[in-house]
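thought: fold this chain, then report.
action: predict
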Amino acid sequence: MTINVNGVELYYEKSGSGKPIILLHGNGQDHTIFNGLIEKLSVNYTVYAIDSRDHGKSSKVKKLNYIDKMEDVYQFIKELEIKKPAIFGFSDGGIIGLLLAINHPDVLSELIVGGANTHPSGAKSFLMFLLKIMHFFTRNNKHELMLTQPNITNIELNSIITPTLVVAGKNDFIKEEHTISMAKNIPGSQLKILEGEDHMSYVSDTEKIYTIITEFLGRTKI
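observation:
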């Protein structure tokens, strides 16, 4: 399905019934990374899996900005009249989720953030070096986004009132101290650092990420 919001056409898939949950993928991906997760969640949840702008089957754009991507999701929620959805955002999707909780504090019921950073300095130096090299040759807007954004302050994190779980792999390319600091600055948030996991591995493991999501949502008494 497609929907026009915020000046772009977003592709999304909806499945299941029950409490709504929105799945947001990472940079350079699309909703299909969640195929196994969608199948499991849709037994008890209404699942919305979105291709963000300039990804998958959604509209192409020349310039990417996390604020625009956040506003896409906000307008998506409003247009479809989705009442108090939870969000699981991975990587870029986690950044979008954080910005949504900061800028529209009454919209979400819960937020689960996986492998996200609040500033480019939160990524390990080898990743930033590779991105700079790739961007030099490709001028890819997705590389540029990761090199220059996000720029979320601790004061903004302190303003989040949405129940939040911060997740990352022990071997993530987001610095562990950055992830810990993020969680400490979100009032009442929970932190889960996964031993033996990298940036993507626990998301690819359908059973593991399903358990992480449903246990957290269960504790927040949905």
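thought: worth noting. Residues 2-118+151-219 form a domain with the Rossmann fold fold (CATH 3.40.50.1820).
final: tokens above.
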